[in-house]
Design brief:
Length: 227
Amino acid sequence: MMNYMPRFIGALAIAGLAASASAADLPRMPAKAPAYAPVPAYSWAGFYLGINAGGGWGSSRWNSPVFPTGSFDVSGAMVGGTVGYNWQVNRWVLGLEGDVDWTDISGSTTSLVCPLGCRTSNSWLATVRGRIGYSFDQFLPYITGGLAVGDVRARVPGLLSVSDTQAGWTLGGGVEVALTRNWSAKAEYLYVDLGRLNCGLGCSLLGAPGTVDFTSHVARGGVNYRF
């Protein structure tokens, strides 16, 4: 019996080696692919703060029953802050946005009845607007419109100056692009009509009561931070 034990152990060892070799020759099962996890769509919903800067150009007119100036150009720079909130329903983005900008939009004209120059200026502009946009993930084109409020000043150097806060309307559109989860950049255009400044004899031309019209086109860019 003792003589057969080494042979039995040797046979087991050979069988084990043969089984290992056979297992090595078997084809390996492919690794299971990881489950697909779609990237969630970008959400525009929520509160945001921002800054903006740009410029405006447009026209003004001093109206008088006797001697109107005719339309003349105004232009200048602007910079300010923005605050807003968005609601998103599927791809539609509905928002409310407000901003206040310091502006230096002005211009003047000279004529026979205004030899020293009739000058109109706008020193600040604020808007409160609704926004409607359609989201292409991180790309959001939109239209916007609402209330515009600003200071309009009519002045003849050395003679008279009249100013008042005017309320009007604005309409425009733009596009906003998400840079990261929290940061976005935008470019927009607004048409602004601040109505007619009734300045009576304060901006009269040869004694006739007058009014001053002021309209502008605004082009600006901005950066927003979303919370």
